[in-house]
Amino acid sequence: MFKLGGSSLWTLANVLTALLLVFAEGGRSFPTKRQDASLLAGVGMADITPPIGEIVMMGYASLDQRANGVHLRIRARAYIFANPSQPNRRVVFVSTDTGSASHHVRQMAVNYLKSKLSTADAALYNADNVMVSATHTHAGPGGYNDDFLYQVSTLGTVPRTREAIAQGIAQAILEAHRNVAPSTVTVTSGNLDNASINRSKKSYLANPAAERAKYTSDIDQTMVQLMIKDGQGLKGIVNWFAVHPVSMNISNPLVSGDNKGYASYMWELQERQKGNSRFVAAFAQSNGGDISPNLEGPRCLDTGAVCDGDKDSCGGNITKCVARGPGYAQGGDVLSTEIIGSRQLAKAQELSSGSQTTLAGGVVDYRHAWVKMSDLQLEGGGPQMCKPAMGYSFSAGTTDAPGPGISWQGDNDPNAGNKPLFDFIRNILKKPSAQLVQCHAPKPILLATGEMDTPNPWQPHALPIQMFIITRKVAIIGFPAEITVMAGRRMRDAIKAQLLADNTVDADALVVIAGLSNTYSSYVTTFEEYQVQRYEAGSTAYGPNTLAGHIQLFKTLAHSFNTTSLPNSTPNFPVTTQPAASSDLNFYTPVVLDTTPGGKSFGSVTAQPAATYKSGDTVTAHFVCAHPRNGASTPRTLGNVQLPGGRLPGGAASTYMTVEKQLANGQWSVVLDDSGWDTTYKWARVGVAESSCTLKWTIGKTVPVEPGTYRLRYFGQNKSVIVTLAHSGATNAFVVSP
Ligand SMILES: *[C@@H]1O[C@H](CO)[C@@H](O)[C@H](O)[C@H]1NC(C)=O
Ligand SMILES: *[C@@H]1O[C@H](CO)[C@@H](O)[C@H](O)[C@H]1NC(C)=O
Ligand SMILES: *[C@@H]1O[C@H](CO)[C@@H](O)[C@H](O)[C@H]1NC(C)=O
Ligand SMILES: *[C@@H]1O[C@H](CO)[C@@H](O)[C@H](O)[C@H]1NC(C)=O
Ligand SMILES: *[C@@H]1O[C@H](CO)[C@@H](O)[C@H](O)[C@H]1NC(C)=O
Ligand SMILES: CC(=O)N[C@H]1CO[C@H](CO)[C@@H](O)[C@@H]1O
């Protein structure tokens, strides 16, 4: 979800301020194909956690929600597939724990990757065969988006965020590249109950009754899973299920992969505990545009009553109406994340032990094109797409995180004159042209993004569209937006029909939508849902026919698997070039100086843990610390402690904290870092340049712990005008009993 959040007028004022500021393997050989191998496959994973410390999270677009700590480190998970008869024709699927994807970041990742490979191997990868799909967690730091509307919601671009994500993607692909080997790749699907609800039922009900009658539910329960095995056992899985990772709410300040990140973490942890350290499990996004994990539905914050269904408000106030997750009463959003993550994990593991279709024979292939959306004309003399624009209800948000209450979902009366203030501010930015207003009707335009190109385009004019086929059994659509359940079903059906008509796939083939791939262009609803103008429709960028346009484009792409080449540029398929990278502009003040309270040094402990704990308890300690944007600690700077296998236990390149166990010889050994579910690191600014950090460890929550003597350690880097220095601090030792 993306909305003008927090206090929306302030956000609009912010946009204005922002604008004012602006104006002032060739030849590689493989072992001979084994009897059970069906494809070549490789898997890899890497940390992508960007700098934290006052960086706005991408997703809720609330300037108040800053990344000020780490719960679960975010990751890129990469998978390479090829047919053994064409080992150099590869497809690379990458799922990232990010709010959205960026074509600029993907290009940077491909460039990093190529720089690490031989010329022959570098030729195997390019942006055309690499698909990067965001899980859509709302708990990842922003600063990487391609277009200004999304950039401004996170206070601009942060070059180090882009680099961290791009380098992590490249690292994950590199790891996968190195272990590409004959494997048995299978696919299976099933239905997951009780992990999602539809948050825009009124929109869904606008779809034709005959169409709705084909389905049992207003959610998409389909879970599709690829599984990769070889002689050594389970190597990886890629799972697609449609649900928003908004279990962690708009107040959460800690980096997290949310429910999908939790599912990945838990399965990978279980395999590591069995000694299978190479296993990578992606829980990727699909057609979850209108799907919430907050199963208890929208309730009034003050009374707990069910909200009024028409406007999702409490007596007219939408800000009070917030959906509750299943853990609301017992454990807040962390428990809700665990519940929704565990349900996805349980179904995924059930699928992994059920019957499978083996992917063998048939080609593994890809298609990619850049198309200029507003030049696209529907076939048969149909209407043309609109330049992008966002509607009033875009600012209403959803019941997962409502807006400020100036607009509401379902605001589709352009003549009501109900927002004189909005219109006033909007018109300072850009009064929408009459043509734009007409094209988007009945959407009342809040932001004429398609007519705003300063300092960068506010929304994309051109979109990357991409498709993979993996044998005759699986097709993957790299969809550059969030798509609703019914819109996604129409898309899948249309693509399947095209692929079947071309005899490109078998009748039992599965077509998967990989949501939020390669860039971000907000939402896509059906034409009928668009008329209702709830949040998702108000955020459907290219007008009422946006879905029809995408279906036409992807059908053309699908058909090109049969004709071997893409058509030349025409109004029906307006191919264009990749847009230039946008300028790196941001409104963050740099960290200039870190200071400590009188008499204290960096790393001194201001609140010690207790002397003894039992498994299940939470250990807490407070430290005098420095701004986390200066950096964490790497294994190299960790000092005189033993690291398991020479690297951090969570596999990340750096950490803000460790849990250490005392060995018989008195030395300390790292058992946990900041990357897992059992630890949290949280920073807070004190006064002007002082900082306080809180470290927590819930003993044995997911990683079993032996009784013994332990300590918590904090790591940071303090900055003066000229130099940044690493420092650390440790708590007193404490005893953990069973
Ligand atoms: C709506 O509810 C929010 C949250 O409880 C509150 O802050 C705000 O004042 C309310 N607005 C009106 C107009 O009552
Ligand atoms: C769904 O989950 C809730 C708890 O979140 C539980 O109370 C309910 O029984 C579950 N329903 C089904 C059908 O499993
Ligand atoms: C988010 O969840 C936490 C508990 O996990 C709660 O304290 C907080 O009030 C919630 N925020 C909102 C906006 O609901
Ligand atoms: C295209 O489809 C036709 C009809 O099924 C088939 O005969 C032909 O081989 C396909 N061409 C390609 C290039 O796949
Ligand atoms: C950073 O902290 C270290 C350790 O406390 C201290 O020796 C050093 O002087 C500090 N550097 C600056 C620039 O404040
Ligand atoms: C058909 C269906 O799944 N309907 C559900 C839609 O979501 C609401 C909660 O918002 C449920 O009560 C319905 O059962």
From TrEMBL:
Residues annotated as catalytic: S292
GO cellular component: extracellular region; membrane
N-terminal signal peptide: 1-29
UniProt keyword list: Hydrolase, Lipid metabolism, Metal-binding, Signal, Sphingolipid metabolism, Zinc
Binding-site list for Zn(2+): H136, H244, E482, Y523
Details of cofactor binding: Binds 1 zinc ion per subunit.
A GO MF label: metal ion binding
Classification via InterPro entries: Ceramidase_alk, NCDase_C_sf, NEUT/ALK_ceramidase_C, NEUT/ALK_ceramidase_N
Neutral/alkaline non-lysosomal ceramidase N-terminal domain mapped to chain residues: 40-552
Catalytic activity field: an N-acylsphing-4-enine + H2O = sphing-4-enine + a fatty acid
Cofactor field: Zn(2+)
EC top class, as a word: hydrolase
Domain of life: Eukaryota
EC number: 3.5.1.23
Domain Neutral/alkaline non-lysosomal ceramidase C-terminal: 571-736
Any one GO biological process: sphingosine biosynthetic process
Family to which this protein belongs: Belongs to the neutral ceramidase family.
UniProt-recorded name of the protein: Neutral ceramidase
Organism whose genome encodes this protein: Powellomyces hirtus
